[in-house]
Amino acid sequence: MRRNKKTLMVAAAAAVLVFAGAAAFTDSVSFSNTNTVVGYGAETITGATVTALSYGLSADHTVVDSVTFTTAEDTSGAQQTASVSFMDNSTTPAAETSWTACSVQTAYVSGTGTIWTCDVSSLSEPTANIVGVQITVQ
Questions:
Q1: What's the pTM?
Q2: Would you kindly state where each structural domain of the chain is located, as residue ranges?
Protein backbone atom coordinates (compact mmCIF):
# COMPACT_ATOMS: atom_id res chain seq x y z
CA MET A 1 0.00 0.00 0.00
CA ARG A 2 2.82 2.39 0.89
CA ARG A 3 4.56 1.74 -2.44
CA ASN A 4 1.36 2.44 -4.45
CA LYS A 5 0.91 5.73 -2.58
CA LYS A 6 4.50 6.77 -3.43
CA THR A 7 3.98 5.86 -7.12
CA LEU A 8 0.75 7.86 -7.20
CA MET A 9 2.49 10.91 -5.66
CA VAL A 10 5.34 10.73 -8.22
CA ALA A 11 2.83 10.45 -11.10
CA ALA A 12 0.82 13.40 -9.77
CA ALA A 13 3.96 15.54 -9.44
CA ALA A 14 5.00 14.66 -13.01
CA ALA A 15 1.55 15.64 -14.32
CA VAL A 16 1.74 19.00 -12.54
CA LEU A 17 5.14 19.69 -14.15
CA VAL A 18 3.84 18.78 -17.61
CA PHE A 19 0.83 21.11 -17.25
CA ALA A 20 3.00 23.92 -15.83
CA GLY A 21 5.43 23.56 -18.73
CA ALA A 22 2.62 23.67 -21.29
CA ALA A 23 1.15 26.78 -19.68
CA ALA A 24 4.51 28.55 -19.84
CA PHE A 25 4.50 28.33 -23.65
CA THR A 26 0.86 29.33 -24.23
CA ASP A 27 0.00 32.74 -25.68
CA SER A 28 -3.28 34.32 -24.75
CA VAL A 29 -5.80 36.32 -26.66
CA SER A 30 -8.40 38.29 -24.76
CA PHE A 31 -11.89 39.00 -26.01
CA SER A 32 -13.89 42.06 -25.03
CA ASN A 33 -16.90 39.88 -24.16
CA THR A 34 -15.99 36.55 -22.59
CA ASN A 35 -19.47 35.15 -23.28
CA THR A 36 -19.03 35.49 -27.03
CA VAL A 37 -16.95 33.38 -29.36
CA VAL A 38 -15.58 35.08 -32.44
CA GLY A 39 -14.89 32.73 -35.34
CA TYR A 40 -11.18 33.29 -34.83
CA GLY A 41 -8.64 30.84 -36.15
CA ALA A 42 -5.23 32.44 -36.71
CA GLU A 43 -3.32 35.66 -36.50
CA THR A 44 -0.65 37.12 -38.72
CA ILE A 45 1.20 40.11 -37.30
CA THR A 46 4.07 41.98 -38.93
CA GLY A 47 6.14 44.90 -37.68
CA ALA A 48 5.52 44.55 -33.93
CA THR A 49 4.96 42.17 -31.05
CA VAL A 50 1.27 42.12 -30.17
CA THR A 51 0.72 41.29 -26.51
CA ALA A 52 -3.09 41.67 -26.35
CA LEU A 53 -5.91 41.50 -28.89
CA SER A 54 -9.62 42.08 -28.34
CA TYR A 55 -12.72 42.55 -30.43
CA GLY A 56 -15.59 44.99 -29.93
CA LEU A 57 -18.86 43.46 -31.09
CA SER A 58 -22.18 44.87 -32.23
CA ALA A 59 -25.05 44.97 -29.73
CA ASP A 60 -26.35 41.61 -30.97
CA HIS A 61 -22.81 40.11 -31.03
CA THR A 62 -23.02 39.11 -34.70
CA VAL A 63 -20.62 41.66 -36.25
CA VAL A 64 -17.13 42.82 -35.30
CA ASP A 65 -17.17 46.62 -34.88
CA SER A 66 -13.63 47.20 -33.62
CA VAL A 67 -10.28 45.57 -33.01
CA THR A 68 -8.00 46.75 -30.22
CA PHE A 69 -4.45 45.50 -29.82
CA THR A 70 -1.38 46.33 -27.76
CA THR A 71 2.18 46.33 -29.07
CA ALA A 72 5.09 45.74 -26.71
CA GLU A 73 7.22 48.28 -28.58
CA ASP A 74 6.81 52.05 -28.83
CA THR A 75 4.82 52.21 -32.06
CA SER A 76 3.10 55.52 -31.29
CA GLY A 77 5.49 57.76 -33.24
CA ALA A 78 4.18 60.22 -35.84
CA GLN A 79 5.44 58.06 -38.73
CA GLN A 80 3.93 54.82 -37.36
CA THR A 81 0.84 53.38 -39.01
CA ALA A 82 -1.17 50.27 -38.33
CA SER A 83 -3.97 48.48 -40.15
CA VAL A 84 -6.05 45.34 -39.79
CA SER A 85 -7.94 42.94 -42.07
CA PHE A 86 -9.79 39.67 -41.57
CA MET A 87 -9.71 36.36 -43.37
CA ASP A 88 -13.35 35.61 -44.22
CA ASN A 89 -14.45 32.02 -44.86
CA SER A 90 -17.78 32.86 -46.51
CA THR A 91 -16.11 31.99 -49.83
CA THR A 92 -13.88 29.11 -50.82
CA PRO A 93 -11.01 29.67 -50.48
CA ALA A 94 -11.19 32.16 -47.60
CA ALA A 95 -10.71 35.74 -48.79
CA GLU A 96 -9.03 38.74 -47.24
CA THR A 97 -11.27 41.72 -46.38
CA SER A 98 -10.24 45.30 -47.05
CA TRP A 99 -7.52 46.72 -44.83
CA THR A 100 -8.73 49.27 -42.29
CA ALA A 101 -6.49 51.93 -40.76
CA CYS A 102 -6.01 51.99 -37.00
CA SER A 103 -5.18 54.84 -34.65
CA VAL A 104 -3.21 55.08 -31.44
CA GLN A 105 -5.60 54.89 -28.50
CA THR A 106 -2.92 55.15 -25.81
CA ALA A 107 0.65 56.28 -26.51
CA TYR A 108 3.52 54.07 -25.42
CA VAL A 109 3.98 53.50 -21.69
CA SER A 110 7.01 51.50 -20.56
CA GLY A 111 5.90 48.08 -19.35
CA THR A 112 2.44 48.50 -20.91
CA GLY A 113 3.16 49.17 -24.58
CA THR A 114 1.16 51.07 -27.19
CA ILE A 115 -2.59 50.50 -27.53
CA TRP A 116 -4.10 50.74 -31.02
CA THR A 117 -7.79 50.72 -31.96
CA CYS A 118 -9.31 49.97 -35.35
CA ASP A 119 -12.88 50.88 -36.32
CA VAL A 120 -13.87 48.02 -38.63
CA SER A 121 -17.64 48.60 -38.46
CA SER A 122 -17.68 49.62 -42.14
CA LEU A 123 -16.62 46.06 -43.06
CA SER A 124 -19.80 44.61 -41.47
CA GLU A 125 -17.80 41.43 -40.87
CA PRO A 126 -19.93 38.65 -39.29
CA THR A 127 -18.19 37.01 -36.35
CA ALA A 128 -19.07 33.58 -37.72
CA ASN A 129 -17.03 34.21 -40.90
CA ILE A 130 -13.75 35.24 -39.28
CA VAL A 131 -11.05 32.60 -39.52
CA GLY A 132 -8.09 34.92 -39.12
CA VAL A 133 -7.00 38.44 -38.36
CA GLN A 134 -4.05 40.20 -39.94
CA ILE A 135 -2.33 43.18 -38.35
CA THR A 136 0.46 45.25 -39.80
CA VAL A 137 2.43 47.98 -38.04
CA GLN A 138 4.88 50.11 -39.99
A1: 0.67
A2: 28-137
Residues 6+ apart with CB under 8 A from 120: 64, 65, 66, 67, 84, 86, 100
Buried residues in 79-117 as b, exposed as e (16+ CB within 10 A): ebebbbbbbbbeeeeeeebebbebebeeebeeeebbbbb
**Longest C-alpha distance within the chain, in Å?**
70
- Spell out the per-residue pLDDT of the chain, length 138, in tens: 445 444 444 444 333 333 333 333 333 344 444 444 444 455 667 778 888 899 999 999 999 999 999 999 899 888 889 999 999 988 888 889 999 999 999 999 998 999 999 999 999 999 888 888 889 898
